[in-house]
Amino acid sequence: MSRTIFCQRLNKEAEGLDFQMYPGELGKRIYDNISKEAWSEWQKKQTMLINEKKLNMMNADHRKLLEQEMIAYLFEGANVDIEGYTPPSGN
Asked: What family classification does the UniProt entry report for this protein (predicted)?
C-alpha cells in the first residue's frame, strides 16, 4: 500500500518511500518528508556526484560531503553542481 506525504523537495503531495532508505534521524526525516520521485532524482544526482568527484564511500569525509549535498538538495531546494556534467568542449 502506498502512502502519500507532502514532499519538501517537490513542494507537493506525492507518493512516499516504502521504507526508510537512510539511517538515523536524517533517514526518518527523509522518509517523512521526501517522495519516491524526489529520492529517485537524488539517487541519479548522487551517482553523478560520486563519479564526478571520485568519491570513496569508505572515506568518512566523502560520505559527509555527500550527506551535506543530499540535505541541501532534498530540503533546501539546492541544485547539485556537477562540474563535468555539461558536454566537454574540446579542451
From this structure: Belongs to the Fe(2+)-trafficking protein family.
Burial-class residue 65 by CB neighbours within 10 Å (0-12, 13-18, 19+). middle
Overall pTM surpassing 0.90 (yes/no): no
Q: How many CB atoms lie within 10 A of CB 36?
A: 17
Please provide residue 7's backbone torsions phi and psi, each rounded to the nearest 5 degrees: -80, 120
Instruction: List the one residue out of 76, 78, 81 whose CA is nearest residue 8.
Output: 76
The terminus-to-terminus CA distance of the chain in angstroms comes to 51
Q: What's the rounded Cα separation, in Å, for the pair 35 and 86? A: 27
Contact partners, residue 64, CB within 8 Å, separation at least 6: none
Q: What is the pLDDT of residues 39-63, one digit of tens each?
A: 999 999 999 999 999 999 999 999 9
Angle, CA 29 vertex, CA 27 and CA 30 arms, to 5°: 65
